[in-house]
Design brief:
CATH class of the largest domain: Alpha Beta
CATH superfamily of the largest domain: Spore Coat Polysaccharide Biosynthesis Protein SpsA, Chain A
Number of domains: 2
Radius of gyration: 20 Å
Low-confidence stretches: 71-76
Structural class: alpha/beta
Strand content: 15-25%
CATH topology of the largest domain: Spore Coat Polysaccharide Biosynthesis Protein SpsA, Chain A
Shape: globular
Length: 313
């Protein structure tokens, strides 16, 4: 079956990055068959840039959804799932089931030239692969090397929300993209529940020009991640371990506290969680297995180190 790729990019106020990101998509060795860019109420020069891009990129289509009514000011748009809602507006504008794969790309993420060629080849190689993507590197001007720091994630459990690609069959099986905070964990969990493999490929790295969780303020973004952890039923012991890791990100210490605050505030307010009991059981079982594998791995490394030290003495 001939592969057909639909790419959807929800954007808002991306005039700084959009030209660079569009050039990277246009240079793909295997470009998308259709690229829908959803302008979600930009107030900067994004609409003008999109109009220019649509004239020179033949597979680019711009969608302008009607503004959503707001009853009160919104300080954190991502917490309202605005990104997922905009994505679905693009999805509804086309007969998406006529494509074999559906991908999402944020307007601040610059792909390497062979990105889609590689991703589609992985789907062709592995029929059970349902959700895939690469990793991204955030700007790190004070770090060593080339000024970029690549994220570290459990590559068999998480595909970054900024650059996901689904098989259409998997996308349908998981119920599409839910318009709620935590959508990018809910989708991959349901994919595995339905027997699909999820995979991020660490040798396929995109440049993320706006650091993760910083669109509406870094600490607010960390708290949002804590709220996501609560919504998808992450257990308290796991959250505490995760908070320690988040605390290593700038601003150090405060990031971890903001993450814990988001989780605790959500629990105190009884923020609605994923209602499916099977989802909760699956998440908890996966977390226990991941902890077990991590402990076994550390024990094995410790024994190996002890053996090496003993042989040298």
């Amino acid at each position: 079956m001939t592969q057909r790729l639909l790419l959807i990019s929800p954007v808002r106020n991306e005039e700084t990055h959009l030209g660079r990101i569009a050039d990277a998509v246009a240079r793909q060795t295997r470009p998308p068959d259709l690229w829908i860019v959803v302008d979600d109420g930009s107030t900067d020069g994004t609409p003008e840039i999109l109009a220019q891009l649509a004239e020179r990129i033949e597979f680019l289509k711009v969608v302008n959804p009607p503004p959503r009514p707001q009853t009160r000011p919104v300080n954190d748009r991502l917490a309202t799932a605005a990104e997922a809602t905009a994505f679905n507006s693009g999805l509804d504008s086309v007969a998406w089931r006529s494509f074999t794969h559906v991908a999402k790309l944020d307007g601040d993420t610059e792909l390497p030239p062979h990105y889609f060629e590689r991703i589609l080849s992985e789907f062709e190689r592995d029929p059970q692969l349902g959700l895939a993507g690469g990793l991204y590197a955030d700007p790190d001007p004070d770090g060593a090397g080339d000024g970029w720091k690549t994220m570290t994630i459990p590559v068999e459990h998480h595909v970054p929300g900024t650059l996901k690609c689904y098989s259409t069959a998997c996308f349908e099986a998981v119920g599409g993209m839910q318009e709620r905070l935590g959508w990018d964990t809910i989708d991959e969990t349901y994919a595995r529940m339905h027997g699909y493999r999820t995979r991020a490929f660490p040798d396929l790295i995109a440049h993320h020009h706006r650091p993760v969780a910083s669109a509406d303020g870094v600490l607010r973004g960390r708290a949002r991640l804590g709220q996501c952890a609560y919504i998808v039923h992450f257990s308290l012991p796991w959250v505490l371990m995760r908070a320690f890791k988040v605390a290593q990100s700038p601003p150090r210490g405060l990031s971890g506290l903001a993450f814990l605050y988001g989780y605790a505030r959500s629990a105190a307010r009884r923020v609605p969680q994923v209602e499916d009991p099977a989802f909760r059981r699956f998440v908890r079982r996966e977390l226990r297995e991941r902890v077990r594998h991590a402990l076994v791995g550390r024990l094995g490394r410790a024994r190996g180190l002890a053996t090496t030290t003993g042989s040298e003495s």
